[in-house]
Design goal:
The chain is of the alpha+beta class. The chain has a domain at 103-226: Umud Fragment, subunit A (Ribbon), CATH 2.10.109. Helices cover 23% and strands 22% of the residues. Strand 5 (174-179) and strand 6 (182-190) form a beta hairpin. 28% of the residues are buried.
Length: 229
């Protein structure tokens, strides 16, 4: 008889590593983050909601490291401050062009600025990825949750091409859609009228819903992805 013991997800293991690194007790962690007490002790995955709460509470954590275990634990801006305790050591910003050291892998909290066009991507805020087949991408972003499974898994990274106009959608394609509620990665289908889109998750556990086009603040086409096994 074969016995299978489910292990903690990589995200939970990384969170435990981070709070140990910072010397934060679990009691303090749950109190500050709003995450349900005891979650880290359960041998299962981390929900999209709790992952988002963690990143909101600890913005210094590199989302790519949290999801994949790769790269530095801390974003460069915070790691510089940890080491030097002096903001003058932080690198100067670079324009959001993707032409320097590859394409930026953006943290979740940068999405609003990208789509509103009111910030530059700071060199110290993100990692850069160079993949020749995605040279036309404007940015990469991590996938949180399992709503797009099996196409994209939690922790995968998608390559995105920002669109200046979203009067026309390619029906059946996957987009990053930014609204006042935040950014979502979903498949777009024809809505009940010209004024609506049907937003579809590839995971059938998540029901589709209609989104008024006038609520859309920004759009990027997903042109591919990097899968994490």
């Amino acid at each position: 008889m074969q016995i299978y013991m489910q292990e903690k997800s990589l995200i939970k293991q990384n969170i435990l590593q981070y709070i140990d690194f910072k010397g934060i007790s679990k009691y303090k962690f749950y109190q500050d983050s709003g995450i349900t007490r005891g979650i880290l002790d359960q041998n299962n995955g981390m929900s999209e909601e709790n992952t988002t709460k963690f990143l909101a509470c600890f913005p210094e954590v590199n989302p790519a490291w949290l999801l994949t275990g790769k790269g530095p634990m801390l974003l460069k801006s915070y790691s510089s401050l940890e080491n030097e305790n002096d903001i003058s050591t932080v690198n100067e910003p670079v324009a959001f062009s993707g032409k320097k050291r590859g394409i930026p892998l953006l943290p979740i909290e940068a999405m609003a600025g990208v789509f509103k066009g009111d910030i530059q991507v700071m060199e110290y805020e993100c990692e850069y990825i160079y993949i020749p087949m995605f040279k036309d991408a404007h940015f990469f972003m991590p996938v949180l949750g399992d709503s797009m499974y099996p196409t994209y898994n939690n922790g995968d990274i998608v390559a995105c091409k920002k669109l200046e106009s979203w009067s026309f959608f390619q029906i059946g394609r996957v987009y990053v859609i930014y609204t006042s509620q935040g950014a979502i990665i979903k498949r777009v289908m024809k809505g009940s009228s010209e004024d609506y889109l049907l937003i579809v998750s590839d995971n059938e556990d998540y029901p589709p819903f209609e989104l008024p086009k006038n609520e859309i603040l920004g759009v990027a086409l997903v042109i591919g992805g990097v899968w994490v096994e």
